[in-house]
Amino acid sequence: MSDIIIYDGGSGFNSPWQNWSWSTVYTFAYTGVTAPAGHAAFQAVSTGYGGISFYSPTAFNTYNTFAFYTSADPSEQYSISLSVVSTSYSSASVSLASVCGGTLSTTTYTACFVDLTQFDLTYAYDRITLQSISGGTQTVAFADLFLSQKTVAQLQDQHAFATGSALGSNTLFLIGDGLISAVNVTLNGKEIPVIGNISLTTPIQATYFTLKSSWVPGNYTVNHANGSFSLTIPAWSSTTLKSSIVTEKISPLIYGYNLPASVSYLETYGTTLARWGGNAYTTYNHPASTLESGGFYNTDDDWYFENVQTSDSLPAFIERMESGGAKVFASLPALDWVAQTKQPCFSYNASIYGPSISSDPYNPTAGNGELANGSVIVNNPADCYEAWTPAALTTWLTGLNKTNVEFFSVDNEMDICDGTHVDIHPVKMTYDEELNRTLTFGAAIKAGAGEDVSIVGPTSCCFWFWWHSSAGAADAAAHGGVSKLRFLLRGWKAAEPSTGSIFKYVDLHFSAQEGRSGNGSASDNASRLRSTRNWWDPTYVDESYRGLNSSWPASEPNPGKIAFIPRMKQLIADEYPGLGLGVSEWYTQTDFVGALEIADTLGILGRYGLSYATKWADADANTAGAAAFWLYTGGWNATHGFPSHSLQIPNFFDPNVAGVYFASTSTEPSDCTTSGVFINKDPVNYQSYKISGWKDGIYIARHFGNPGVAQQQSLLFETTLSLDSHSTVVLPPYSGLFLRPY
């Protein structure tokens, strides 16, 4: 099939594409910025979260790439997603900056490529939307929009040599469009002999050259048939493994995702824990029989409170995840209503309650429940819901095959249900109600699933709601000013004599960079990569609103410095000793900066002993974000994953620009089993380490992030490398490297 051209000039999109934009004004045949030769452009000005959107009556899910040129200020923030109009299904989104190589300009056009294979192409997508994620005015110009069956790599001639990198102790990594069999390497003008090479053809053609001597600090020049480049190795940072101690066992369940897309995804990226959860699952009506597939849920505040039938069910999800080698985390409803098994059905039906201030653009009968004066329509939940009780939950669980379920949670983000699920719970969730619901529905889960099940809670939404209820300051004052999380733990502990032990883990949702919008600028990227310190560092002041002392309750120490894992472990030790700590939603973007965040975060979760974690949501296949997980796991059933026991070594590097993690196969660290993961968060400079006590010899090496070739940063490279007797390791800019003795 030939390319589909969406816009190549004229006064509108090419037929049959229809303009489905909102809050956006167009200037077609735009000439304000000179378009690339042979191309025509248009300008779009979006206001108030406006959208640039176009629809085709024919699905385009057989195409691999959506490509275009764009000219925009780097601060402009747009998300790009695909959708199916007939079902209102929308894919995950990617940022405009991430598909344009992270560089945008108001004076020139940048070539941008959206890899459609990162989305689930079993859906018959027929709409593309670029939505402003800023409430202000945003201006962007586009040229030559088209869909292609070629891959991003093919469109960019990705195999053309761009650059290469030093790697490990004495390895040079090159990518070429033909076999690069000979290179000349010099250090300060003196030639360094090359003594061997290994070539790969997958994931693309590449060659690893072995130098006779190890990399040392200095300036190198590399010459080969296709060109030349220079690299600078900085002075060493040093550490010794001999004085390390093993204090944390790395849980295999930290490599988890919410709602993984497929079994093949699990196997490729080594997903160990899969969560069935999110806003929709608060109202999910499980099929009456566990053998049935599908159920109903209400789209809640995410999309105009509409009942929707899904083809999936928890029993089917459990079976599918088991076949892919992943354990299951299941969120179960704990409010008073679940969706009726019927559609269409709208909580704020305009024919019953009158029009809302906003309605579904595809179905104006479905409103958002808000009126122009700011009040909310008082609806009857029985219109679209049926009653749900702890007894009903126990009965349903009794018939569920639970052999592959590791965790059950009491609902999802109950603390904000007066917003997300205002149609069934319009009143504010108080301290007392949340305590009662967690205990009552937790006991119901235990009764239906058995004594040995791991029940978790409160699955709290986010930073503010760890400490506060939506009922506000009066609610906190009525409970002596104690933070909400402490109150819940004290309540669970106090209930033990009558209920027995219900909860095994404290489960929270956490984003290391909450409250910050990314614009793709160098300063923004650096801030995102620093934010991983929020997981562990008691000296790091959060760079968002959470760093303000006014955000903290008086009962919580060290305001402004989150240090999530040690803080929460101490809080548990104070209030309910013996409970574990897990995070069932943590978030980063899945662009390449996000991938570096992910890789650094996974090392932190292991080092500081988190019990489990599932990232929201899955990083679509073939993204750098997914590659970051693979760096540690090597994929399903890999024999060379990151070992099970974390070596606790004082930081010998700057955590703002690097992350280094070591692990052994036992509590007695041995240089024969010690492995390392190295993360370079610096976009320009190499990292260079000298590690005494580490075995020299042959290592399994996995790496991602090829310098100078942004479009290859999701590719999964695995080979063997030799480490020299000096145990030196160099790491290219913006990259991750895994090393384990072979």
CATH architecture term of the largest domain: Alpha-Beta Barrel
Number of strands: 43
Q: What's the number of helices?
A: 15
Quote the average pLDDT: 89
The proportion of residues forming helix, as a percent range, comes to 10-25%
User: Could you name the ranges where pLDDT drops below 50 across 5 or more consecutive residues?
Assistant: 157-162
Assembly classification: single chain
CATH superfamily of the largest domain: Glycosidases
CATH fold topology of the largest domain:
TIM Barrel
- The span between the termini is 46 Å
Strand residue content: 25-35%
Computed structural class: alpha+beta
- The first-level CATH class name of the largest domain: Alpha Beta
What is the number of domains? Answer: 3
Shape: globular
Question: Major sheet: size, sense and barrel closure?
Answer: 11 strands, antiparallel
Rg over CA atoms, rounded to whole Å, is 27 Å
Describe this structure in words.
With 742 residues, the protein is an alpha+beta fold. The chain folds into three domains: 4-155, Sandwich (Jelly Rolls), CATH 2.60.120.430; 164-246 and 643-741, Immunoglobulin-like (Sandwich), CATH 2.60.40.1180; 251-345 and 384-633, Alpha-Beta Barrel (TIM Barrel), CATH 3.20.20.80. Helices cover 18% and strands 32% of the residues. Strands 1, 2, 3, 4, 5, 6, 7, 8, 9, 10 and 11 form an eleven-stranded antiparallel beta sheet that branches. An eight-stranded parallel beta barrel has the order 22-23-26-31-32-33-34-35, surrounded by four helices. β34 (580-587), α14 (592-607) and β35 form a beta-alpha-beta unit. α6 (390-398) packs parallel to α8 (431-449) and α8 (431-449) packs across α11 (484-499). The chain is globular.
